[in-house]
């Protein structure tokens, strides 16, 4: 199976690789997946007082599509408000990266990572976590 | 040096140009049916087949009459196992094999279970070898066949074939081996090794695809298998179907070349393999999978902890290798062979198999070393697990969200 050009591009030049201070109150961290399943994503967001995501970083253990999905997610997150970020759907990632059906789970994981980072930020700042639908894979 | 570099010789090998040369006339002027007994076209084709039979027999130390040509090792495994089960069902219904066998053996055994066979799947030790005491304990009066592979396709470990066949014979069972990865690479002698049936394929030894051999012993004891395909009664009635003459001629030539060049080639390849392995395992958290004493000369299976195999292969884009990790929704399961060794799933997901071959050069290995190191470092920079490991976090203590 050949990878799409966009997957290759994100894989070769991943955006926003790195680590934010997970103990900071303005940082939300999402760690999803499991090593034994072959993919783990860590996605972090930094949110300012206007509820705008000013920075996003990721690190991913996984296949090329998983790395590209998380790289793309960080790119999309920057500049969005937290509420806007909640609306990112995994199918948007599938479309943008032209992921084949066998790689859709990579986009699902990226969506899970975004929501889990947002919830971490919310809980840290005294808000209720948003109820998430059970992971669909 | 041309890119990409082919290092997947356990999947298949390129055809040796000398093999191709031997085959070519059998596509054109010598096109006859080897079973045509009444004209020169048939005789010429038959001569080609007979010569190939001699070449194949010489490589594994048997007689020509014991060579049954098939479409490949999968068919040979099927014919050997199903054929013995059917032929010897009056004697018993028990078959012993191992969990690290090729699917051609495992799935054949599973099929026979539905037909009343009792199958024991021996587990292997951490190094990939079976436990002889466990084999002996599994033997019963009902055991008709022990089938254990010679060399493993994923990790290259070579089983103690002589000892295994001796145990099988002690209990009156036949011994079969899938020797697809071993024949032509290391000395295999059906008499010295006590082998009753043996399967191999031409395309793993620089011959063409679509042709293989089932060796069936004719003396001490005389082994019979029930044909699995009905038709013209070719191959002493054991495998009907017009012979693939060009393929068989190619298989014969491939056997001859392997026999003549094996010793020097095995020494050359194991030196290159060792160079590759030692250069890659100096990296932190890199491990060779499988026994490193008893193994084929041309395979290295290495786990690079905290990076995922498929992602890693993408970064090694000028290297054609394979991984024990399959990241698709159809199969999230990593290699069952590596899991049989007791490797945790995450280490199995982190494995790469390098398969060297006749056309692998030292320059290519040097390139592969640099390319792989760079890729592993790149992926580790991206890996949250590597970062956690570096921070001293015990990953086994984390509650992962299983998905």
UniProtKB/TrEMBL annotation, chain A:
According to the UniProt entry, its GO molecular function terms are:
iron ion binding; iron-sulfur cluster binding
Q: What InterPro entries does the annotation carry?
A: ISCU, NIF_FeS_clus_asmbl_NifU_N
Choose any GO biological process term that the UniProt entry carries and state it.
Answer: iron-sulfur cluster assembly
Please give one Pfam family short name. Answer: NifU_N
Q: In its keyword annotation, does this UniProt entry include Transit peptide? A: no
- Primary role: A scaffold on which IscS assembles Fe-S clusters. It is likely that Fe-S cluster coordination is flexible as the role of this complex is to build and then hand off Fe-S clusters.
What family, per the record? Belongs to the NifU family.
Q: What is this protein called?
A: Iron-sulfur cluster assembly scaffold protein IscU
Species per Swiss-Prot/TrEMBL record: Pedobacter cryoconitis
UniProtKB/TrEMBL annotation, chain B:
Assembly description? Homodimer. Forms a heterotetramer with IscU, interacts with other sulfur acceptors.
The answer to keyword Transferase applying to this record is yes
Q: Which reaction does it catalyse?
A: (sulfur carrier)-H + L-cysteine = (sulfur carrier)-SH + L-alanine
For this UniProt record, the keywords arranged alphabetically read as follows: 2Fe-2S, Cytoplasm, Iron, Iron-sulfur, Metal-binding, Pyridoxal phosphate, Transferase
The superkingdom listed in its UniProt entry is Bacteria
Query: Per UniProt, where does [2Fe-2S] cluster bind?
Result: 327
List the source organism. Pedobacter cryoconitis
Q: What is this protein called?
A: Cysteine desulfurase IscS
InterPro entries (UniProt xref): Aminotrans_V_dom, Aminotrans_V_PyrdxlP_BS, Cys_deSase_IscS, Cysteine_dSase, PyrdxlP-dep_Trfase, PyrdxlP-dep_Trfase_major, PyrdxlP-dep_Trfase_small
Pfam families under this entry? Answer: Aminotran_5 (PF00266)
Cross-referenced NCBIfam families? IscS (TIGR02006), PRK14012.1 (NF010611)
């Amino acid at each position: 199976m050949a990878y799409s050009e966009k997957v290759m591009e994100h894989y070769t030049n991943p955006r926003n690789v790195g680590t934010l201070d997970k103990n900071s109150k303005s940082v939300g961290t999402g760690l999803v997946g499991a090593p034994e399943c072959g993919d783990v994503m860590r996605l972090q967001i930094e949110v300012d007082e206007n509820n705008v995501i000013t920075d996003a970083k990721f690190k991913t253990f996984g296949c090329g599509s998983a790395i590209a999905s998380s790289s793309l997610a960080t790119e999309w997150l920057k500049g969005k408000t937290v509420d806007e970020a909640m609306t990112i759907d995994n199918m948007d990632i599938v479309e943008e990266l032209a992921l084949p059906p066998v790689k859709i789970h990579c986009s699902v994981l990226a969506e899970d990572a975004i929501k889990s980072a947002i919830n971490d930020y919310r809980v840290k700042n005294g808000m209720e976590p948003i109820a998430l639908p059970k992971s669909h894979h | 040096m041309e890119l990409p570099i082919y290092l997947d010789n356990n999947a298949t090998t390129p055809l040796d140009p000398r093999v191709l040369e031997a085959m070519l006339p059998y596509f054109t002027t010598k096109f006859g049916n080897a079973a045509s007994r009444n004209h020169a076209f048939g005789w010429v084709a038959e001569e080609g087949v007979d010569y190939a039979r001699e070449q194949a027999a010489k490589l594994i130390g048997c007689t020509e009459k014991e060579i049954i040509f098939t479409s490949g090792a999968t068919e040979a495994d099927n014919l050997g196992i199903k054929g013995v089960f059917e032929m010897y069902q009056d004697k018993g219904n028990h078959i012993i094999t191992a969990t690290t066998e090729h699917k051609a053996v495992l799935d054949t055994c599973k099929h026979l279970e539905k037909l009343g066979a009792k199958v024991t799947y021996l587990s292997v030790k951490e190094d990939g070898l079976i436990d002889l005491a466990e084999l002996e304990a599994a033997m019963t009066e009902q055991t008709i066949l022990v089938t254990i592979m010679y060399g493993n396709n994923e990790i290259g470990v070579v089983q103690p074939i002589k000892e295994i066949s001796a145990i099988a014979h002690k209990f009156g069972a036949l011994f079969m081996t899938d020797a697809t990865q071993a024949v032509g690479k290391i000395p295999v002698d059906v008499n010295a090794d006590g082998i009753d049936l043996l399967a191999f394929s031409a395309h793993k030894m620089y011959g063409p695809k679509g042709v293989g051999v089932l060796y069936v012993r004719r003396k001490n004891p005389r082994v019979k298998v029930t044909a699995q395909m009905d038709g013209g009664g070719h191959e002493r009635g054991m495998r009907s179907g017009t012979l693939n003459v060009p393929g068989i001629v190619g298989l014969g030539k491939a056997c001859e070349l392997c026999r003549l060049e094996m010793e020097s080639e095995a020494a050359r390849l194991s030196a290159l393999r060792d160079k590759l392995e030692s250069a890659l395992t100096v990296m932190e958290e890199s491990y060779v999978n499988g026994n490193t004493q008893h193994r084929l000369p041309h395979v290295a299976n290495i786990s690079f902890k905290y990076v995922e195999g498929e992602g890693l292969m993408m970064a090694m884009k000028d290297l054609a290798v394979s991984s024990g990790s399959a990241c698709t929704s159809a199969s999230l399961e990593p290699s069952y062979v590596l899991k049989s060794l007791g490797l945790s799933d995450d280490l199995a997901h982190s494995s790469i198999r390098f398969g060297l071959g006749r056309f692998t050069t030292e320059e290519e290995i040097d390139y592969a070393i640099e390319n792989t190191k760079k890729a592993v470092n790149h992926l580790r920079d991206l890996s949250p697990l590597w970062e956690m490991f570096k921070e001293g976090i015990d990953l086994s203590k984390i509650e992962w969200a299983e998905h």
